[in-house]
Amino acid sequence: MPRHKCRRATSYQPLITRFMPKGGVHEEAITLIPEEIEALYLMDLLGLYQEEAATKMEVSRPTFARIIKTARQKVSLALLCGHQLHLEVKRDRYVIAFCCDDKEHFENLHPKGKYIFIFTVQDQTIEQTLCLDNPAHEKEVKPPLTLTPLFQEYNVNFFLTATLGQGLKNTLASGGIQVISKESISEEEIPKLF
């Protein structure tokens, strides 16, 4: 009798979910499941060791090794043999962050806004809301140095902003945080973003 498969902790939420090679394409698409996407994110994007990545995913190190091996084989097959690559995404839980100057109206979103808002959305319902003072605003510190580590601490998946410098764009991307261009948003729109 097969063992019951444990639920794996995943946090990375890619915006782009389908990749197609230019030119000849195989009919068959290769699908990466959420746990394989998370393994690639933790090891290849964040650069964690297997032990650390396994702990974050709440699996054993041997289980993580099997997951990352399968993920890398699928990506290699897609890249080298011309298969389409589909990323299976479950958007039942995600975390959104943005910065603005007003606690009531979320307008003029920009990285140096006075406040950082972090919304955790579960099953299209806002589960938790945090409002923090933005260290990039208060201390005149550059946003790439403060925002990306803070967002990673709170497991932010998406950052909403109307303006974005190249330095912050690069550090967010290297931290696996997707940027969505948005001038403003209402609290009612947040759970319906995806």
Give a verbal description of the structure.
- The protein has 194 residues and is of the alpha/beta class.
- It folds into 2 domains: 18-87, Arc Repressor Mutant, subunit A; 93-192, Dinitrogenase iron-molybdenum cofactor biosynthesis domain (Nucleotidyltransferase, domain 5, 2-Layer Sandwich).
- Helix content is 34%, strand content 22%.
- The chain has 6 helices and 8 strands; from the N terminus they run E-E-H-H-H-E-E-E-E-H-H-E-H-E.
- It has helices at residues 34-45, 50-57, 61-81, 135-138, 143-153, 166-174, and strands spanning 18-19, 29-32, 84-87, 93-100, 115-122, 125-133, 158-161, 178-181.
- Helix 1 (34-45) runs antiparallel to helix 2, helix 2 (50-57) packs across helix 3 (61-81) and helix 5 runs parallel beside helix 6 (166-174).
- The radius of gyration is 18 Å and the shape is globular.
- The termini are far apart.
- The model has no long low-confidence stretch (mean pLDDT 87).
